[in-house]
Amino acid sequence: RLSVSLVRQATYRVRAEGTSLKVTLTPAAATAAVLNLTGVAAASATDVRAYPAPATFVPTVSSLNLVGGQTDADLAILRLGTGGVRLRNSGGSVALLADVAGWFGPA
Fold it and tell me: Is 66 helix (H, G, I), strand (E, B) or coil?
């Protein structure tokens, strides 16, 4: 489990090989990950966007939507980029939990 607090417009990168905490999230052969994203106690209305890293754009579609004070979860299936996955909070601040529920490998 990854737990991070994101302020408005903050982006956090999760590497497929692990984080700076040396936590292995998925096998090196994984091409996609299944993440359970949980936003805890959002300070205000916000959305969290999960996308492959190192993408040069932020997607227009969100993975998790929250209103102020809300705690909620959603499942996201995403392709892993060479830099893993990026998690971006659009507004306010929110504590974000990302649990890897599964992964896909090459066909």
Answer: strand
Q: How far apart are CA 78 and CA 57, in angstroms?
A: 15
Cross-sheet strand order for the sheet of 94-104? 2-6, 94-104, 32-40, 72-79
Please report, for residues 39, 41, 91, the alpha-carbon distance to residue 45 in angstroms, rounded to integers and kept in the order given: 11, 10, 7
Contact, 42 vs 66, CB < 8 A? yes
Element (H, E) at 76: strand 72-79
pTM for the model stands at 0.76
| DSSP letter, residue 23 | -
Residues in a beta bridge with 68: none
Low-confidence ranges of the chain (pLDDT < 70): 1-27
The DSSP symbol for 107 reads -
